[in-house]
Amino acid sequence: MPVKKRAVKRRGSGSNVGLAVKNSKKQKLSLSRPEPPYTKTPGVVLTFGQGDVGQLGLGADTLERSRPAVVPCVDHVIDVCAGGMHTVCLTESGEVITFGCNDEGALGRDTSKEGSEMEPGKVILEGRVVQITAGDSHTAALLADGKVYAWGSFRDSSGTMGLSSKGTEKQPIEMLPGYVVVKIASGADHLVMLDENGQLYTCGCGEQGQLGRVTERGASRGSRQGMAHLLSPMLVTFKPRHRPEFEDVWAGTYCTFAKEKSKGDIYVFGLNNYNQLGLEEQKSHFHPVVSRAFSGKSWVQICGGQHHSIALDSEGVIYVLGRKEYGRLGLGEDCDDAKELIPISALRDKKCVDISCGSAVSFAVTDEGELYAWGMGSTGQLGTGKEEDVHTPQVIKSKQLESHHVLHVSGGGQHTVLLAKSVNQQN
């Protein structure tokens, strides 16, 4: 009996690792943070968790996998993203490979041939891609020339929104023509673009405030401004005399984090019902405000799940914030909700180089190539081989990982994707 593609509820995610793009005329903005190691080290892809719509890339017969398994015929990869129910890979040559659910166009390619969505396939783009992101039902790619292409659809509480005024886009479309973009970030159903002038542009669902440019009333598709205002990428504005420039941006499931260029302040907007933005008021924030909790530190990455955030600083220390249920904070079974950033004591002797969130799960990669996971275990996406919740970081072991050094992790809706190199592979 064929699997219904809507049988599993989507859980948004996003991969937010950025690369600077050089403008041939003038260099206006270049990200100053160190490049993650995997941007220079190609490797293989491993997946685990739910695979009922082909998001594991392990064939139609693999509906789930409780331990990491290598995806065949996909190599020389330098980045991976796990979407809600699809997977995206970026190769060393700048090509994009996708597989998984394509009912809303998230794969960006023709899958009319039966079973083709479950097999890794190439997305046709005019240029070399330097960054990829994935949300619940959309995918985006940043090209070396600063152009951004996206495909798929955004969703809100009423259902499918479409990606543009034309609706769902099954093939890549350019999102911000005429602008040079240096980084992109995807939440579950929104896309953020940072241009060379340090300005933020957003589009998609804004119901939780994650666009940072519409009011609570204006975030409804039935508002006076309508759907087109939400789907068209537009500038996030500030008071007339205050126009900060940003140098980095990250997106959580329902929120956005942006690093201001001069002082390093972290501006936030979106869902804060468990203080996951580092703000005291437990409500959605529809316009950017400075988060004192996040400001004042040198962050390499910030990730957000449904109700929690994790952040990695330049010293390799991981901090967590937000809701405790299912162990997603990694602070132990008896911990309280974290209303301020707390370092994970179980990882205090480790130097971490990469982090990721799913809806209620968290991951970390150490400089020794180890993968740690914690949080909700019911979907198998922790890779422990069991379906039990994990309340403190647990190192993930398997026969496949014994011969691989993990470089990067991306948590999706109900599956997880790894980038790894052979232990014998030279950098």
From TrEMBL:
Disordered: annotated segments: 1-37
UniProt keyword Repeat present: yes
Keywords: Guanine-nucleotide releasing factor, Repeat
RCC repeats: 43-93, 94-145, 146-197, 198-262, 264-315, 316-368, 369-422
Biased composition (Basic residues): 1-12
GO MF annotation list: guanyl-nucleotide exchange factor activity
Residues making up the signal peptide according to the UniProt record: none
Keyword Repeat included in the entry's annotation: yes
GO cellular component assignments: cytoplasm
RCC1-like domain: residues covered: 45-418
UniProt protein name: Regulator of chromosome condensation
Gene from which this protein is expressed: RCC1_3
